Amino acid sequence: MAMIPGPSPTGASKFEVKSTLSRQRVSIFESELSSHGSSAGFEATPAPDLSIAQPSITVMQCRLCSCTFTESGPRMPKILPNCMHTICAQCARELTDQRCPLDHNQIPLRYTTKDFPDNFMLIQHIQAMNVLEGKDKLCDVCDEEDADVSTHFCVDCKQYLCEIHFSAHVRSKTSKTHQVLTVNDYASRFHPSDHGCLERNHVSPLFCQVSGHESQRSDFFCELCEQVICTTCALMDHRDHVFGDIEDVYQRQKSELHEKINFSKETRTNIANSLSNVNSVLQSLEANFESASCDADELMESIVQKLFERKFFLMSQLKEIYDEKRSVLLSQRRLLSDALVRIDTSHSFCRELLETTDHQRALDMKRMVRLSLEEIPKLVAHRDLSPSMDDVVVFKRLNESKIIEDLETLGRVSKERPQEKACIPRWDQSRRGQDVMLSNGDSTVYRTDHRGWGGVQGKQVISSGQYRMRISIDSVGNNTFVGICYNDANLNEGPSKRNILLRENGEIWHHGEKVGTCEGFKTADVLELVIDVDEQKFQIFRDGKVLCTVEVLTWPVRPFVVVGSRHSYITIVP
Questions:
Q1: Residue 455: inside a domain, yes or no?
Q2: Taking a C-beta distance cutoff of 8 angstroms, is the pair 503, 509 a contact?
Q3: Which position has the higher pLDDT, 448 or 538?
Q4: What's the Cα-to-Cα distance from 459 to each of 304, 337, 430, 436, 448, rounded to whole Å?
Q5: Among 191-205, 491-505, 532-546, the range of highest mean pLDDT
Q6: Please, what's the largest Cα pairwise distance for the chain?
Q7: In which domain, by residue range, is 557 found?
Q8: pLDDT, tens digit (0-9, with 9 covering 90-100), for 60-93
Q9: CA 295 – CA 293 distance, rounded (Å)
Q10: H or E element: which one contains 260?
């Protein structure tokens, strides 16, 4: 008789295991990190949890639609190439672009939805669960569209059979000696704790997909084409290729996969550290933003109604810097998070691949897995993993008594770290005629000549070597000059006749005459004056680039700043 009765049940009914299996299921990941608002009304995204649960074949729901995976049909689990995420077939068909919706990773254009491989490990897990839960199983031989419910299971073929195909199976010359059990008898063989054993019993042979070879098992692996093949394929289409037995090749490739995983661990560590640094900067940026906003609010409260328009202007500048830095950091965090999720997904899938007993299908995916792991180091190739922006957002509180007198110079929003004010030449009619000096150690000084312009010359006389001075343009107005003057020039006598100066509009003046033009400078620029007496050359730099160069320099000279407008404000950077 072809149908052999199975052993008696071990004491656990197939209907008693539902509660046990339900406890084994793992809940799906949280979909998105929730946003929270700041007291100033700006949104901030919390840092991701770096201890995210790793993907597992026991995650039984699609992370996009939350539908439970099935072993066939539109909810069959499909693997996305490159990032190795698993979604259901229906969601895979509904993808609008070639990107993974979970980590935004690009899906290679050579793959279409029908090319996405089944997650065979998850399908085997589902099949085992269905058996233990006593669910109806459709016949594996019938057409998928009108398959009947199975009544028997062939232990040798690993196939479920309906009554019609069971009758044909036991009469067939090739299968009449197979061990065939009723579905109930087959399920009763296993205890709920034997769940893994049941999965292994559902590993059916992989048959060749080449037309005409469908009845032949794929027992070989072509290492050149990176695919499993049958005996006929090996002797015909792959006869000049390097191929080997499934088990032999799997053991060898298993070692190579271990090496690739270990190689990519360093990349994962670097990305995780960088993500942590970005999160720290974002948190500090948020705190500094709150602090700077409070400073601005405290000052604004002391100003009457006519200052409100100025307040809104300053706050918009503050928010612009905050949004700019936050946007860059959030973008970097998203890229790093996506890269990290992608690596973890690939690693998790590979670990499960290394533990599967279905070596045929595992090797059939070897090329995809290899390409996925080889792409990991490229995620951060030629990228600076340090935070793209710092956490600096500062509201500068200037001289409050002067601010009340001159509202247009009230406060300043900056994305740079605050500099210690060494010397600030500023227009002041009351100090007209005072011939003051400028150095990196002076406090605020004032100077006006007979035209009402504020001119300040450096205290240090430069006769040899090279001298550098940095000047911060806090606020620029008309007739603002930076440069040098000759040592024998007296401010009250009109030093503009004996100097080399660059005006805010880009005009270059030498000995009182305009000798050229350049790009000029504006508010928030930081200029560097370089006086090289040995080379007889004077240069002004901005952001490392030369704004102007004047040669044939005579000496001795001093740095020189002219403030021709009450709207100008300049700081000498120590």
A1: yes
A2: yes
A3: 538
A4: 41, 54, 22, 9, 17
A5: 532-546
A6: 124
A7: 419-573
A8: 888 888 888 887 778 888 888 878 888 888 888 8
A9: 5
A10: helix 246-300
Q: What is the DSSP letter of 490?
A: -
Residue 517 lies in a domain: yes
- How is residue 230 written in tokens? 């049958």
Backbone angles phi, psi at 540, to 5 degrees: -125, 125
Q: Which of 188-197, 260-269, 454-463, 523-532 has the lowest mean pLDDT?
A: 188-197
Rounded to 5°, angle at Cα 115 from 111 and 117: 120
**Contacts with 155 (C-beta within 8 Å, 6 or more apart), sequence order:** 178, 179, 180, 181, 186, 201
CA distance 194 to 146: 32
Q: What is the structure's pLDDT at 266?
A: 83
Measure CA 534 to chain center.
50
- Residue 473, classified by CB atoms within 10 Å of its CB into exposed (0-12), middle (13-18) or buried (19+), is buried
Measured between alpha carbons, how far is 548 from 503 in angstroms, rounded to an integer? Answer: 11
Facing residues of 507 across strands?
517
Section 427-451 average pLDDT: 43
Distance CA 331, CA 31 (A): 18
First-to-last alpha carbon distance for the chain, in angstroms, is 99
- pLDDT higher at 563 or 324: 324
Report residue 305 as tokens: 């109604």
- Whether 15 is covered by a domain: the verdict is no
Alpha carbon distance 79, 66 (integer Å): 16
Q: Which two tokens stand for residue 199?
A: 């999965």
Rounded Cα–Cα distance for residues 485 and 415 (Å): 33
Residue 186 lies in a domain: no
SS3 281: helix
Which residue, among 92, 64, 67, 68, has the nearest Cα to 78 in the 3D structure?
A: 92
- Cα–Cα distance measured from residue 544 to residue 535, given in angstroms and rounded to the nearest whole number: 19
432 confidence band (pLDDT: 50, 70, 90):
very low
Give backbone dihedrals phi and psi of 220, rounded to 5 degrees, phi first: -130, 160
If one counts every other C-beta atom within 10 angstroms of the C-beta of residue 527, the result is 19
Strand, helix or coil at 248? helix
pLDDT digits (tens, 9 = 90+) for 98-107: 788 888 877 7
**Two structure tokens written together for 54:** 């790793």
What average pLDDT does range 300-318 have in this prediction? 77
Query: Looking at the structure, do residues 523 and 445 belong to the same domain, yes or no?
Result: yes
Looking at the fold, whether 430 and 564 belong to one and the same domain comes out as yes
Are 387 and 515 in a shared domain?
Answer: no
